[in-house]
Design goal:
It is a single chain. This protein is α/β, with parallel strands linked by helices. A 7-stranded mixed β-sheet has the order 3-4-2-5-1-6-7, with helices on both faces. Strand 6, helix 7 and strand 7 form a beta-alpha-beta unit. Helix 2 packs parallel to helix 9, helix 2 runs antiparallel to helix 13 and helix 9 packs across helix 11. The longest helix is centred in the last third of the chain and has 77 residues. It is elongated, with a radius of gyration of 39 Å.
């Protein structure tokens, strides 16, 4: 555990304790996946398995018409004025707001390096000029575990965007854990562009979308707010994808910007609770994924080692077949060659060439072969030789086919896989269980 986490625990602040433990768990999980040659990503690469590292933070995207209060909410949550706010369209591109070691503003190219996932988005024309990242040192609430994505304010009519804003927002939605849709009661709450995008997002991210009536304190009396809510709900119900049971739209407003003496119920804490639930769900998901990935890697290592043993047995049989068939084929070749040679060479010529004693020794050695071939009728001799040549060819072909070997792991690979398995079983899985225990301990009395 980090020193900062230890100081928070010593301070006795339950919320800070929870936050610090969650941060430590996410950090440890990320390290197990990416750091060093013994990381899960490195093991997956060696085993040919696709392993994805978990994010250290959840992504929350805010969408809505211009002046819907998206930037104001971010400023309120992190308790710093990072995003510009106003009635005019202040946010014309995508701004990612995250917690870091120092205050910094990153432009488009730097943002794509800071968030490599955004490189896929560069196919959208000119969008790189409308990407930015605001890094702040704020540690308020659960912000260290969050990356907010502030999107361009949406309007209908002849408003022209410098890039395909609809496609870009929908692409971003696939990378987010939560999508907050803010409806402004005074502005274009029923902006068709906003509703169209939300309807498209709902097709694959319906469980991530949360609706809020922002700036609810400016909607007038309670009766006026109810009318606005009914109008929005009616418009949403006209769209089949958004017409579902259990629909909820809390009324929220930024307390520091609230109108004086408002009687409007502020449910902005519900937004914080939605964020807390998403963080909890993400943590559980990451820990479960870590366990599944570790188990899958152990199983893959066992499979590779078992396959290597099976291949080893197969290769022994293959070599045995090769030795047997090759010996048989070569023996037949030698027998035929010997018969042909001694059918052409007379004993006297052989005595002259190698001497009488050596010649006699040779004839005694090959006498069984010559005797065998002497049994073949003279008229069938060439036919038999041809048949034996064909059989010999078949033996060589069989030797080649049956002697095919399967790949084996090198000694270095087997040693590496054994070390990886030991690391997974004795280190990573116990750490996963320990992190789960620490996480669950937050829920215990």
């Amino acid at each position: 555990m980090t020193r900062r986490a230890a100081r928070r625990i010593a301070g006795g602040n339950t919320e800070c304790l929870t936050q610090s433990i969650n941060e430590v768990i996410l950090q440890e999980c990320h390290e197990l996946y990416v750091e060093g040659t013994e990381s899960l990503l490195a093991m997956g690469e060696r085993l040919g398995m696709a392993v994805e590292s978990p994010r250290k933070k959840i992504n929350i995207m805010l969408i809505g018409n211009h002046s819907a209060g998206k930037s104001s909410f971010i400023n309120w949550y992190i308790e710093e004025t990072i995003q510009r706010t106003g009635v005019a369209i202040e946010t014309q591109g995508f701004t990612l707001v995250t917690s870091g070691k120092r205050r910094e503003t990153l432009t488009g190219t730097a943002t794509t390096h800071f968030y490599p996932m955004l490189k896929e988005l560069l196919s959208t024309d000119k969008i790189i000029d409308y990407l930015a990242t605001e890094v702040t040192t704020s540690k308020q609430k659960k912000f260290p575990l969050i990356t907010f994505i502030d999107t361009p304010g949406l309007v209908d009519g002849e408003m022209q965007y410098p890039f395909d804003v609809d496609s870009a927002i929908e692409w971003m939605g696939k990378k987010c854990d939560l999508i907050f849709v803010f409806f402004d009661p005074i502005g274009q709450a029923l902006c068709k562009r906003t509703l169209n995008i939300v309807e498209n997002l709902n097709e694959y991210a319906g469980d991530k979308i949360k609706f809020y009536l922002s700036k609810a304190d400016t909607a007038g009396s309670e009766t006026d707010r109810q009318k606005v809510l009914m109008q929005i709900v009616q418009e949403l119900c006209k769209r089949p994808g958004l017409n579902k049971t259990g629909f909820d739209m809390p009324t929220i407003y930024v307390p520091t910007l609230a109108a004086e003496k408002t009687k409007c119920v502020n449910q902005i804490e519900e937004v914080c609770k939605d964020i807390d639930r998403s963080i909890a769900h993400t943590l559980q998901s990451i820990l479960n994924t870590l366990d599944r990935d570790s188990t899958a890697l152990v199983e893959r290592i066992d499979e590779r080692m078992e396959t290597d043993r099976t291949n080893g047995k197969h290769n022994i049989k293959a070599h045995s077949w090769w030795l047997f068939l090759t010996t048989l084929a070569v023996g037949m070749v030698l027998a035929i060659t010997t018969q042909l040679i001694f059918s052409l060479v007379s004993p006297k010529l052989l005595d002259t060439l190698i001497g009488k004693e050596h010649s006699q020794l040779v004839f005694e050695t090959i006498t069984p072969v010559l005797g065998l071939f002497s049994l073949i009728p003279e008229e069938n001799k060439y036919f038999i030789f041809g048949a034996l040549g064909g059989v010999n060819l078949i033996l060589f072909i069989l030797a080649k086919v049956l002697s095919r070997t399967k790949p084996r792991l090198s000694s270095k690979q087997k040693k590496q896989f054994s070390a990886d398995r030991k690391k997974l079983v004795e280190t990573i899985k116990p750490r996963q269980a320990d992190m789960y225990s620490k996480y669950l301990a937050q829920c215990a009395e």
